Amino acid sequence: MRLVTALLVSLGVAVPLATSGAADPPAKPAEGKLRVIVFGAHPDDAELKAGGTAAKWAKLGHAVKMVSVTNGDIGHWREAGGPLARRRAAEVTAADKILGVTPQVLDIHDGELEPTLANRKTVTRLIREWKADVVIAHRPWDYHPDHRYVGVLVQDAAYMVAVPHFCPDTPPLESNPLFLYASDNFQKPYRFKPDIVVALDDVIETKFDALHELESQVYEGGALGSERQLKLAPPASDPKARKAWFRKEHYWAKRDAEVANQYRDALARWYGPERGKAVKHAEAFEVCEYGRRVSEADIKKLFPFFD
Fold first, then answer.
1. pLDDT of residue 306
2. Per-residue pLDDT reduced to its tens digit, 31-70
3. How far, in Å, are 47, 183, 266, 273 from residue 279 at the CA level?
């Protein structure tokens, strides 16, 4: 089995990690419940960019899956390879349990994701199997090639998810989902547009608790960390102090506050001026025009958090 897996990976075919929980059969859609799938490049990206909104959907009984498209096996300055991939799969599984969502990690090497036909079919099948109403991914303009290619693969799956003779082994969706990009601060070729901004103050502690589980990235610095990084945070033996340090010092804990401040006008549009002004943490999304075209009323049905 290991030889078969190695061969598939060498050919660019995405294989789920056994530790990710990906072997579970696709859940049957519950009556009246939404189906959301979020694609991140590495075992932390989906949680960082959309973990708060995912937790809000999950609290209302909607089904959310977080897919890490690569296994993160070079995402640490000291560790690498299979042991790191398994460690990061375990971290993201623990984080997603806190968020109330389903994790999946694909066994593609970190830093080696390519926008191939095989990977486009993998993404298409995942969206179909989840019977997604909403699909979220990186924008295809980003500092990291894996981030960029996740964006390309997901937007290339838009429309194709409803075409019967593309990936005919997996039943097509009856209609194109709403495809969204998660926010970033890159300016070229064009700036992120905050079409949807979600207030997170009611779930921000849940998101922080989930990100706390991503120890190799949060407390050890990930790919660009160092011995110095280890000394910045309290030791793993004192998780309470670590959590307090994370909330006060780590830039990940400040990201959603920056999003709220950056898109304050959009928050006022969705929540009203008074409440929009008071929001402290938020996540923002841009509508991908290749997916389903939506009205404001459609968005409120798909994001049932707005008053």
1. 85
2. 789 999 999 999 999 999 999 999 999 999 999 999 999 9
3. 20, 17, 11, 10
Is residue 76 in some structural domain?
yes
Domain membership flag for residue 214: no
CA nearest 134: which of 86, 211, 64, 87?
64
Task: Please give the backbone phi and psi of residue 199, each rounded to the nearest 5 degrees, phi first.
Answer: -70, 135
Residue 75 lies in a domain: yes
Full domain range(s) for residue 165: 14-20+34-199+284-302
CB atoms near residue 163 (< 10 Å): 13
Number of domains in the chain: 1
Mention every residue, 6+ apart, whose C-beta is less than 8 A from residue 103: 20, 21, 22, 65, 66, 68, 89, 92, 93, 95, 96
In a domain, 210, yes or no: no
C-alpha dihedral sign at 119, 133, 166, 19: positive
The domain that holds 181 is classified in CATH as: 3.40.50.10320
